[in-house]
Write a structure and sequence with these properties.
Blueprint: H1 15-58, E1 64-74, E2 77-84, E3 92-98, E4 108-113, E5 120-122, H2 124-131, H3 133-149, H4 153-173
Antiparallel strand pairs: 1-2, 1-4, 2-3, 4-5
Helix pairs in contact: 1-2, 1-3, 2-4, 3-4
């Protein structure tokens, strides 16, 4: 009786080849993990940087709120006279705000004065959007890392579009 050739179709690979395939899988997982950590680091840095200003623009509970009349701009800052909205604060002559959020000389803008300083942060939609610009930039950078390093193209497109929309909204609000 002839031997039956009912052997399965699996082919046994050599030990070196199996090790090479395993090592390649480990490298792929390590690359994806490292790129994920890099993207997370970029996003955390963006939120950290944005929150430094955004907390004053968004949460104006205990700070000095008022209007700033822009009188002069030099370098990165514009300064002017601060008049508080409520009776809590005092009128100040040398309060400054970032030039990017300041209107033309002679115009007024609503601001919050940072505690213990003469620096002000713009409030309202324009101030909040401007405060989150670093996060928008980190979204754009992280989208490149997610697309290139992690091969998650749809996720990267969403991240990039959210970052671009946030940047465009901040630009339009100014």
């Amino acid at each position: 009786m002839p031997k039956s050739s009912a052997r399965t179709s699996s082919v046994r690979r050599s030990r070196a080849r199996r090790f090479g395939e395993s090592a390649y899988g480990v490298v792929l997982v390590a690359r994806t993990g490292l790129m994920g950590l890099l993207a997370l680091l970029l996003l955390v840095a963006g939120v950290w940087t944005s929150w430094n200003t955004a907390r004053y623009a968004m949460l104006v509970g205990g700070e000095e709120r008022g209007t700033l009349t822009v009188s002069a701009c030099a370098g990165e800052r514009c300064s002017g006279r601060f008049v508080p909205l409520e009776g809590d604060g005092r009128v100040r002559a040398g309060v400054s705000v970032a030039r990017a959020v300041a209107p033309e000389v002679g115009e007024r803008v609503e601001v919050v004065v940072k505690p213990g300083s003469a620096d002000a942060v713009r409030t309202g939609a324009a101030g909040v959007l401007h405060a989150w610009v670093p996060f928008a930039g980190s979204l754009l950078l992280a989208a490149l890392v997610v697309a290139g390093g992690m091969r998650l193209r749809r996720t990267a497109w969403v991240m990039g579009l959210v970052g671009a929309v946030l940047l465009a909204a901040a630009f339009a609000a100014m």
